[in-house]
Amino acid sequence: MKKITIKEIQELQEKILSRYGQEGRRFPRRETQDPYAIHICEVMSQQTQLSRVLPYREKWMQDIPNYEALASISKAKLLAHRSGLGFNSRALRLQECAKVIVKDYQGNPPKDYKKLLALPGIWPYTAGAICAFARNQEEVVVDTNIRRVLIFLLKLEENISIKELENIAKKLIPQGKSRDRHNALMDYGAMHLTAKKTKIKSVSKQSKFEGSDRQVRGWLVKQLIKKGSIQISEAKEEFPKKEIEKIIEGMIKDKIVKKSWNAIMISK
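Request: output the structure for the sequence above.
Response:
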């Protein structure tokens, strides 16, 4: 692991935080410290551009404002709020998580990082985001922008593991400024140290949507929200080159739909 000097840490903190104070971006996630609102925004933003997420987030927060509402909403209404963003199984995992938070934590997620990580559908990035942005705790958040900034400024190897990068990143969190520090790094990566400028590639890239299984799954969910149920033959006619039965089996496994004879419907 590259050894980071105190001078490097101080220079990085001052440079990034100073610029953030002058030109930091403003959007809904940064205007709240509500763990639920931040949780929803972070899950919606995964592999999806923020500009696409904002209208969905606004509608979601109006209709499903807290963990209690999320835990009790019907699956059909829940999927309707997600329809268009894709990755519908994420909405179901959010609901599973909400039920545990309501039951075990009276609707307020635990402050402990490890306890957050034990909840359904919460992975290290989401747990870190809730800790850092909702509670200003000194937990690590490493998104694509932060990864690129740290690699570029600290002259790290581009193939550095996420775990090693997180260990380095944690040393850079100034006490009492975790929220601002993470927001500042994200902005610096998005506005200045871009992928085009640094030539640093992202670790993962979302696969093409057109013609993908995700497109079929999204189409099926939209049809089910509209009609209640559809014949499997309809999907085969719409996507003659896709393995519809296999895709439906995956959706059944994810508890999105259930099958009855030659038709499917949203599972309860």
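The chain is about 60% helix and 5% strand.
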